[in-house]
Amino acid sequence: MTLASIWFVLLFILLMGYAILDGFDLGVGILHPFARGERERRISLNSIGPVWDGNEVWLLTAGGALFAAFPAVYATVFSGFYIALMLLLSALITRAVAMEMRSKVTSPTWRSAWDVAFFLGSLLPALLLGVAFGNILRGLPINAAGEYTGSFLSLLNPYALLVGVLVAVAFSLHGAIYLAGKCDGEMRMRLETLVPRLWAAFALLYVAATIASVFVAPFLFHGILASPLAWVLMIDTLLASIAIIAFARAGRYKLAFLASAVTIGSIIALCGVSLYPRLVPSTASLDYSLSISNSASTPISLWAMLIITLIGVPIMLIYTAFVYRVFRGKVVLHGDSY
After folding, report:
1. In contact, 252 and 179? CB cutoff 8 Å
2. pLDDT, tens digit, for every residue of 207-234?
3. 3-class DSSP string for 57-77
4. Contact present, 88 and 124 (Cβ < 8 Å)
5. Percent of the chain scoring above 90 in pLDDT
6. Tally of helices (H runs) and strands (E runs) in the chain
7. For residue range 71-88, what is the model confidence (pLDDT) as tens digits?
8. How far is CA 109 from CA 100, 112, 114, 116, 337, in A?
9. Cα atoms in the Cβ-side hemisphere of radius 13 Å centred on 333
10. Are strands 290-291 and 278-280 parallel, antiparallel or unpaired?
C-alpha cells in the first residue's frame, strides 16, 4: 500500500507537470486565431516553438507510469476512452504538423488553413483532456469485473463537458499570461485586456464545477474537510488565483505565470486528495471502483519503476529547465523562425 500510494502521488505529479507545461502552449494555440497579422501569428507560434514537444513528454510519461503502476486502470480507462484517445492523438499530430508545414509555402490560403488546424489541434486536446478528467472525477460505469460498460456518448455528459470547458479556459488564461510575457507593443496591450476576462471566466467556471461536484460526485467530499492537506490546497488555490490577477494588473507576467502554474497544480492536487485511494470511481457501485489496492502492479514492478523514475525524472527536469533558460526572453523573429 505504501508503494502504491507513492505511485498515486507520482502519477498526479506527472499530470500536474503536463497540465502546467503543455497547458500554456495549448492555450497559446487556442488564442492563435485572435492574433492580428502575419507577424503576430509568427510570434504566437515561435513563443512555444522551442518547448512544445518537450512539454508533451510529460503526458507520455504519465501514460507509461499508469501502465506500469496501475495496469488495471490503464486497461479499463484506455479501452473506455478509446475513441476520445484517438481524437486526442489525431489533434496533437495535426497541431504538430501545422506548426511545421505552415511556413513552407507563402500562400495566404495555405497558411490560413494550417492556422485553423493549429487552433483546432490545440482546442480539442484541452477539451478532451478536461472531459476525460471530469469523467474520472464523476466516476465511470465499471462493473464488478473492472470492465467499462459505457459508450463514447455517455462520456459527453453535462458535468464532464463543464470540466472540459473549464480546462480549455484555464489553459487559455495560462497561455495568454505566457504570451504576454513573450511579446511587446499592441499585441501585449490586447493580451493585457484579455487576461482579466479569461480570469473572470475561469473563476466562474471553477465555482460552477465545484458546486456541480457536490451533487454529481458527493463522494469526493467525504472526509476531505477533515484533511489538513485539503485545506492547505484549497487556500493555496484561492491565494494563487488572486495573485494571478494582481500580478497581471501590475504587468509582472513572470510572477502571474508562476501563480497560474501554482493554481493549476493545486487544483489537480486537490482532485487527487479527493479521489484517494480511488483512481477511478465506479458509478455502478463505489465498491467496484479501481483503487490503489486492487489495481496496482506487483511490489517488485513498483520498486523497479520507482528506481527508473528517480533516475529519469531529474534528468527530464534538468533538460526542461535548460531549454527554458536558453529560450527565455521576448520572441525575436528571424529567417529560421516558424
Report:
1. no
2. 999 999 999 999 998 878 778 999 999 9
3. HHHHHHHHHHHHHCHHHHHHH
4. yes
5. 72
6. 13, 2
7. 999 999 988 899 999 999
8. 16, 5, 9, 11, 20
9. 12
10. antiparallel
Burial class from Cβ neighbours inside 10 Å (0-12, 13-18, 19+) for residue 318 reads: exposed
Q: How far apart are CA 48 and CA 233, in angstroms?
A: 29
Report whether 68 contacts 301 (CB < 8 A): yes
Alpha-carbon distance of 248 to 166, in angstroms, equals 20
CB 14 within 8 A of CB 268: no
Question: What cell does 68 get?
Answer: 506500469
DSSP 136: H
Angle at 94 between CA 93 and CA 95, to 5 degrees: 90
HSE-CB at 102 with a 13 A cutoff on CA atoms is: 25
In terms of Cβ atoms closer than 10 Å to its own Cβ (0-12, 13-18, 19+), residue 326 is exposed
Q: Write the Ramachandran bin of 185: left for phi over 0, alpha for psi from -120 to 50, otherwise beta.
A: left
DSSP tag of 279: E
Sign of CA dihedral 321, 324, 326, 328: negative
Measured in whole angstroms, the distance separating CA 91 from the mean position of its chain's CA atoms is 15
Single-letter amino acid code for the residue at 136: I
Q: Compute the 3-state secondary structure of the chain and give helix, strand, coil in percent, each to the nearest 5.
A: 80, 5, 15
Q: What is the pTM of this model?
A: 0.94
Closest CA relative to residue 150, chosen from 327, 23, 280: 280
Q: For the chain, which residues make up each domain, given as ranges?
A: 2-326
Query: What is the rounded average pLDDT for all residues in the chain?
Result: 92
Where do we find the cell 484555464? 170
